[in-house]
Design brief:
Length: 226
């Protein structure tokens, strides 16, 4: 049987992960960059030698070598661009894989939350009971408002009063208060303090109109002879 169908192949090593593949390509890109930098340095050396060369044959030889280095540099650049494109594709695939894993985790969490929510609504929250409680609260608030209105009612004010009568009475009351204020202002100053009853205010210095008595040499007042 083994000769007809052959032996089953032994399982090989597991394939590398996308991260490993990307890291490997990144190492190759770094190697290519180092080779490209070495070619650029070599081209600078040939460029300086070509400027300093005096013989046309020597200059031609240097130009031929510089051309070979330039071709090698272009080859390395093409290889680096190709490897960079591969690395980009692997990174894109890795990003898509990680996004898919995150989506699976999100969907699983949402399913678990949906199940838990249904269980909670079915076991701990009854919609009919919540609606009944809301109706009861509304009725209680209405009763409470009616109680507040009853408690705030003014029992001394009759219900059959007309607003027009109240306004007319208020105007009469304002007129009476105005007349009383006028009388109080008129009687506030006593008659003996009014301006027409007071004597004229003196303007001179006291004693300035009295005659001056004669004095002697010692400053004593001399008796007046009648």
């Amino acid at each position: 049987m083994n000769r007809v169908f052959g032996k089953k192949k032994a399982p090989g090593p597991p394939p590398p992960s996308l991260d490993d593949a990307s890291s490997g390509l990144g190492g190759r890109i770094e190697t290519m960059d180092a080779k490209i930098a070495a070619c650029e340095n070599e081209l600078k050396v040939y460029k300086d030698k070509i400027k300093k060369a005096k013989s046309p044959a020597a200059k031609k030889t240097l130009q031929k070598r510089a051309l070979e280095v330039l071709k090698r540099k272009r080859m390395y650049e093409q290889q680096r661009d190709a490897v960079a494109g591969q690395q980009f594709n692997i990174d894109q695939a890795n990003f898509g894989l990680e996004s898919a894993k995150a989506s699976i985790t999100t969907v699983a969490a949402m399913k678990a939350a949906n199940t838990e929510l249904k269980r909670t609504l079915k076991k701990d929250l009854d919609i009919d009971a919540v609606e009944d409680m809301a109706d009861d609260m509304a009725e209680l608030m209405e009763d409470f408002n009616e109680i507040n209105e009853a408690l705030g009612r003014n029992f001394a004010t009759p219900d059959d009063l007309d607003e027009a009568d109240l306004d007319a009475e208020l105007e009469l009351l304002e007129d009476e208060l105005g007349e009383e204020l006028d009388e109080l202002e008129a009687n506030a100053t006593p008659s003996y303090l009014q301006a027409s009853k007071l004597p004229a205010q003196p303007t001179g210095v006291p004693g300035s109109q009295m005659p001056t008595a004669p004095v002697d040499d010692l400053g004593l007042t001399m008796p007046q002879v009648g």
